[in-house]
Amino acid sequence: MKFYCPTCRQQFLPENINVQTDLALCKACGNVARLSGLVDADVASEILQNVPKGAWYSDTMSGCVVGATTRHPMAFFLVPFMCVWSGFSLGGIYGKQISKGQFNLTNSLFGIPFVLGTLFFGGTALMAVCGKVEVRVDDGEGVVFVGIGRLGWNRRFRLDEINSIEDKVTSFRYPGGQGEAIVLRGKSSLSFGTNLTEPRRYFIRNVLKLLKAQRVKH
């Protein structure tokens, strides 16, 4: 495999790669990089020939779009659970007040955690039904989108400022996810994709590694 320095774009020599410590030293500029954050372009390009179900890749005039749906069979459990949760909790706390036309401050404050829980479970259920994670890269400028349709959050990054692209174990597991996220490390870190299944997350991560490797070579 051939690995390239993200700083000076020179190839790492085999004798300067330590697999056990996951580090590679560039003799040209002295930069030390994590081996797990680098990629062999020949290996990574094979990923485009095996797009997993629920993922996609397309070229644009100046870059590409890679993404995957967050749809998951867990939605068959999450949607009914959300309806039952919100129906009993919010209906019991606020429904009675509305039907009687009486406001109770104590009960209303007590119901705030249930409102937050409903929003959380509702958002998670919707992502499991029709959510997506999509990354657009145009001439080195990237945008990560996580959401439903056009509703969601966007985060920008520059490929030239990314030193490594890797997985990170997270403390919270989304239903349908594997408890890991894609992490872009550079001047700042950007994490996303926790609610993706492993094959879809693996696909997006390796496409981004391929794009990074191609820019390094050029």
Task: Describe the protein.
With 218 residues, the chain is of the alpha+beta class. It folds into 3 domains: 1-38, Ubiquitin Ligase Nedd4, Chain: W (Single Sheet), CATH 2.20.70; 42-71 and 131-217, PH-domain like; 75-127, no CATH class. It has 5 helices and 11 strands. It has helices at residues 41-45, 75-100, 105-110, 112-130, 198-217, and strands spanning 17-18, 23-25, 32-34, 55-59, 63-69, 131-138, 141-148, 151-158, 162-169, 180-186, 189-192. The strands form 3 sheets. Strands 4-5-6-7-8 form a 5-stranded antiparallel sheet. A hairpin with a 4-residue loop joins strand 1 and strand 2. Helix 2 (75-100) packs antiparallel against helix 4 (112-130). The longest helix is centred in the middle third of the chain and has 26 residues, at 75-100. The protein is elongated. 29% of the residues are buried.
